[in-house]
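User: Run a structure prediction on this.
Assistant: Running it now.
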Amino acid sequence: MVVLMDGKHLSQKKQTQLKEQIAQMKAETGCVPGLVVILVGENPASQVYVRNKERAANLVGIHSETIRLEETVSEAVILELIESYNQNDQFHGILVQLPLPDHIDERRILHAIRPEKDVDSFHPTNMGYLWSGQRVMVPCTPAGIMELLSEYNIPIAGKNAVVIGRSNIVGKPMAQLLLEEDATVTLTHSRTENLASVARKADILVVAIGQSQFVTADFVKEGAVVIDVGVNRGQDGKLVGDVDFQAVKERAGYLTPVPGGVGPMTITMLMEQTYQAALRTQQA
């Protein structure tokens, strides 16, 4: 019988704890963690993500601002805006919602955020810290997955872990976090030969390939832990993951649903990292 890993419940529990920590910080130091989100254009998925981030920030006591810019905004305007928040001590986290329009150099924008305010952990400095075993900021989705594995007491040390997807946002940092916990990690992608065969060796399988219901039961070892990072729209308009949920739940021991699995934890870890960034300014 598969255990569904309830990211929504864990997210609510962690947000309650975070709310108490932020209230204590405010009472003791007067500091209120601040987060600014810069949203360019009218991408519907981005609009939903940003609204959810605003809601979570308000719930835990983080001061949140959202800057909404037209699709046609120049790169120079965004860079100037980022620099103004780099210099603003009231804001401890800066997040630029992706994707950006084609005329904007995404890498240049992300690199403009000061590493200590880079709560998404996309800056090469923070990536370097992670890969050298020194965590400062950690990408929010992999961080949330590690919290889920901990909550369900999933053993990691010595286990075979396979990550499908090699993005800087999920795949690569996920592999590193699992490696730090002494898993034997295989990082795979769409061009990996015999991918299903490789995946079947996994005790822990993390799927972030961005293709609707890509992973079928044939990819899954009996009793494996399957973490579905994907968020896609099915033909009926409903959200589905990168994993064929109905087929895989018959083989997996643990499985994250979509929605309600990884997604809520991503937003909660963003709030956690904003709080931690504020805490570091108080301890400096």
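The mean pLDDT is 96.
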